Amino acid sequence: MANRRRPVSEINVVPYIDVMLVLLVVFMVTAPLLTQGVELNLPKKPSDPLPNDQDDPLIVSVRGDGSIFMNVGMENVEDLGNRVNLFSLREQARKIIELRPSVPVFIRADVELSYGAFIDVMSALQESGAQTVGLITDPPEGLDRE
């Protein structure tokens, strides 16, 4: 009985490192997929930048072909959000505006969008209860805002 083994108080971290490396690979593969978006050619006009103190505005983006996307949140202004049709835009915007009547509403519309399609989106937002709708543009090249 003189040859007794002492218990080992070390943790084997190799399995944890393996799991961490697998998670790292998963995140590296999926991260670029999450940031993909749809190109919009916004009109280039001087305008004031969006204030950062606004609580999660409702942003509706419309491509030149008439596809409509809805996004709620200031941290993802460039993200187009979820694709919707005119009917679901009306319904989803109505629900958001009913819950938060003071939510700011903005439209990002492609410069190639027809006037009729733009008016359809504007009227859908007004029917949803939006009192005012702001327009988002890109600043012209060479215009420095500091």
Describe the 3D structure.
The chain has 146 residues and is an alpha/beta fold. It has a domain at 58-135: Nucleotidyltransferase, domain 5. It contains three helices and five strands, in the order H-E-E-E-H-E-H-E. The chain has helices spanning 14-34, 86-99, 115-127, and strands at 58-62, 68-72, 82-84, 105-109, 133-135. A five-stranded mixed beta sheet has the order 3-2-1-4-5. Helix 3 links the parallel strand 4 and strand 5 (133-135). The longest helix is centred in the N-terminal third of the chain and has 21 residues, at 14-34.
The number of E-state strands comes to: 5
Shape field: elongated
CATH topology of the domain at 58-135: Nucleotidyltransferase, domain 5
Q: What percent of residues adopt helix (DSSP H or I)? A: 25-40%
Distance between the termini: 80 Å
DSSP strand (E) fraction? Answer: 5-15%
Spatial ordering of strands, largest sheet: 3-2-1-4-5
Summarize the structure.
With 146 residues, the chain is an alpha/beta fold. The protein has a domain at 58-135: Nucleotidyltransferase, domain 5 (2-Layer Sandwich), CATH 3.30.420. Helix content is 33%, strand content 14%.
Draw up the topology in text.
Layout (H helix, E strand, L loop, with lengths): L13 H21 L23 E5 L5 E5 L9 E3 L1 H14 L5 E5 L5 H13 L5 E3 L11
Parallel strand pairs: 1-4, 4-5
Antiparallel strand pairs: 1-2, 2-3
Helix pairs in contact: 2-3
